[in-house]
Design a protein that fits this description.
- The protein has 285 residues and is an alpha/beta fold.
- It folds into 3 domains: 5-107, 3-Layer(aba) Sandwich (Glutaredoxin); 115-196, Alpha Horseshoe (Serine Threonine Protein Phosphatase 5, Tetratricopeptide repeat); 203-284, Serine Threonine Protein Phosphatase 5, Tetratricopeptide repeat (Alpha Horseshoe), CATH 1.25.40.
- The protein is 59% helix and 10% strand.
- It is built from 15 helices and 5 strands.
- Strands 1-3-2-4-5 form a 5-stranded mixed beta sheet, sandwiched between helices.
- Helix 6 (130-143) packs antiparallel against helix 7.
């Protein structure tokens, strides 16, 4: 194995991957010794590691030895190569891919002159100033039209600014390979839940409507979305399950879709998701 590649474990993953990704892209190769495609991909990753030495890092995780770590990151297929940047997963590929595709994926996350502006946009978003973040990100994209991380960030800012139509347009413009990434799946889920709240009343009004008329499924659906947005996730899941109990075809399956989107946004609460997913399946079948 190339000296540019390191093996990581549950005990060192934070240092090897999350902390390191704050200064450069980190590719994590989730593999196993019995996996033939993993062995085919290994020399490709070695060449990538050599090519990007000092600018990006390749880390390997043996999923047989690190089963808890693989489960924590939702690894279901091997090989999975996931890119981490600034402390979180931002992209991935599954299966054997050509070296050119992996190099292109790495290059998307290398430091660029616009990174300071992207950091400022993130600060504006965190400060509750999404409209300003949108303007700054649009400026970046005028100068760097191929800056995909900035475009992903723009989708997030547009959702926060309530510009849902433009957020959907930007999301659809992203390359197909990005749409399967965990970050994009979560943004798509947030966008769809935000659409549920278009022109919706406030939380207390919706609670009163549902209390007065339990069969008002439109208000119940909006209430669930409001509860979820307020951080009352299990209250929201309960409302969507109640819609399924009353009419599983409501809104062309809106409750089921909302549950699946909520599950996507609750990846860090695996036990809760599993319990509610079982209830959903029982109601559907």
């Amino acid at each position: 194995m190339s000296e540019q590649i390191i093996e990581s474990t549950e005990g060192t993953f934070t240092r090897d991957v999350l902390e390191a990704s704050r200064t450069m892209p980190v590719l994590v190769d989730f593999w196993a010794d019995w996996c033939g495609p993993c062995k085919m991909l290994a020399p490709v990753l070695e060449r990538v590691a050599e090519a990007f030495a000092g600018r990006a890092r390749v880390v390997k995780v043996n999923t047989d030895a690190e089963q808890r770590l693989a489960a924590e990151h939702g690894i279901r297929s091997l090989p999975t190569v996931r890119v981490f940047r600034h402390g979180k997963a931002v992209d991935e590929i599954i299966g054997v891919q050509p070296e050119s595709a992996i190099r292109a994926m790495v290059e998307r996350y290398l430091d660029k002159p616009s990174d300071k502006d992207r950091a400022e946009a993130a600060r504006l978003l965190a400060d509750g100033r999404p409209e300003e973040a949108v303007l700054l990100l649009e400026k970046i994209l005028r100068e760097e039209p191929e800056n995909e991380p900035a475009r992903v960030q723009l989708v997030e800012a547009l959702i926060a600014a309530g510009q849902l139509g433009e957020a959907a347009t930007q999301l659809e413009s992203l390359p197909v390979n990005l749409l399967d990434s965990p970050e994009l799946k979560m943004l798509e889920a947030r966008l769809n839940l935000a659409r549920t709240l278009t022109d919706a009343p406030d939380l207390e009004t919706l609670r009163k409507r549902v209390e007065d008329n339990p069969s008002d499924l439109e208000s119940r659906n909006q209430l669930a979305a409001r509860e979820f947005g307020a951080g009352r996730e299990e209250a929201a899941l309960g409302q969507w399950l109640e819609i399924l109990r009353r009419d599983r075809n409501f809104g062309d399956g809106a409750a089921r879709q909302s549950l699946l989107q909520a599950f996507e946004l609750m990846r860090d609460r695996e036990d809760v998701v599993h319990a509610y997913r079982r209830q959903m399946m029982a109601l559907l079948h």
